Amino acid sequence: MSKNPSGVAPPPHVFEPEFIDGVREIFERRILFNALLGLQISAISPEHVTAQIAMRPDLIGHFAHNRIHGGVISAGLDAMGGLAVMAAIGARHLDEPVLARLHRFAKLGTIDLRIDYLRPGIGERFELRAEVLRLGSRVASTRMGFHAADGKLLATGAAAYIVS
Predict the structure, then answer these.
(1) Rounded to an integer, what distance in angstroms lies between the CA atom of residue 34 and that of residue 67?
(2) For residue 56, what is the enclosing H or E element?
(3) Integer Cα distance of 141 and 159 in angstroms
(4) pLDDT digit string (tens) for 84-122?
(5) Rounded to the nearest 5 degrees, what angle is found at the Cα of 71, between the Cα atoms of 69 and 74?
(6) Model's pTM, two decimal places?
């Protein structure tokens, strides 16, 4: 974190409750596929976002091992990359009203997505994390992780999103 001329670190961005509620509404309820996956936001900041998915029988990809389907992992990480970009855009435009910032998300779309499956997804709950590596005027790059409840990394993702 850089410091201003007085040598004091600037305060971190804090989103308004209305912005957080609006992002939750879009991410968890209006994007119906996210609701189908059961994605629930745990934390949102301009630098990092986290969410949870609870394992359910309809998310099983391998019935004999009770593993979560790879498509759930991929879709969840893609959604998280988008959420991280939403947070970064929201922080970049703090001078705008909340509704104007939320409206900016209508232009967001995935350009490229890469997922690496590292370990089988077995467990009752999973944590998904994402951060923006670069937010340009037209494209954002992200890094994501899919973790077991004990924190073990099960899959990683990297993506690019159109933001304009």
Answers:
(1) 19
(2) none
(3) 6
(4) 999 999 999 999 999 999 999 888 999 999 999 999 999
(5) 120
(6) 0.90
